[in-house]
Design brief:
about 30% helix, alpha+beta, four-stranded antiparallel sheet, about 160 residues, 8 strands, 3 helices, single chain
């Protein structure tokens, strides 16, 4: 009888440890995912995007059905590029630490992005998920590239890309 109680107590302790660990891991994962959404600045208005995109030299489309995109990592909408700004009239799946890159070659997977990483230039941070405006640094010539890419730096995850020339 005593051994039965010990076995039951041991199993109960293991179950409690496992459920608490699972709850902790789930909480951290949800925090990583939700924190950028909760702390994101207000998205630029459609009128601001329209005004800036009317000055653009190039445009392309983010599409959900790219090879490297999935139900958690995607973008859709019109991306417009001028020498001073890159804008999106559309949406991105929310997530942490999004970066905007330009590439001389179209990529649509993590492997292709990593393979081209030495030829890709970082433009800046993407901080909003419904529309965005990212300033282009003066040392970047957008005519030397043909693809704009959104990448999650924290997880090394491809989000979306669009060919613009």
């Amino acid at each position: 009888m005593f051994q039965h109680r010990q076995t039951y107590a041991f199993k109960k302790t293991i179950t409690l440890i496992n459920t608490h660990l699972l709850a902790g891991v789930l909480g951290v994962a949800l925090g990583i995912y939700l924190l950028p959404i909760l702390t994101a600045p207000t998205a630029p208005a459609a009128s601001e995007i329209s005004n800036l995109s009317s000055q653009a030299q190039y445009s392309g489309e983010f599409q959900k059905n790219l090879e490297g995109s999935d139900f958690l990592h995607w973008g859709e909408g019109k991306v417009s590029l001028s020498p001073t700004t890159i804008t999106l009239m559309g949406k991105l799946a929310p997530g942490p630490d999004y970066k905007l890159y330009l590439s001389p070659k179209f990529v649509e997977t993590e492997a292709a992005f990593n393979q081209e990483k030495t030829n890709i230039v970082l433009v800046g941070d993407v901080k909003t998920f419904n529309n965005f405006v990212v300033d282009v640094p003066q040392n970047i010539d957008i005519t030397k590239y043909d693809t704009v890419i959104v990448w999650c730096e924290s997880f090394g995850q491809f989000i979306t890309a669009a060919k613009y020339q």
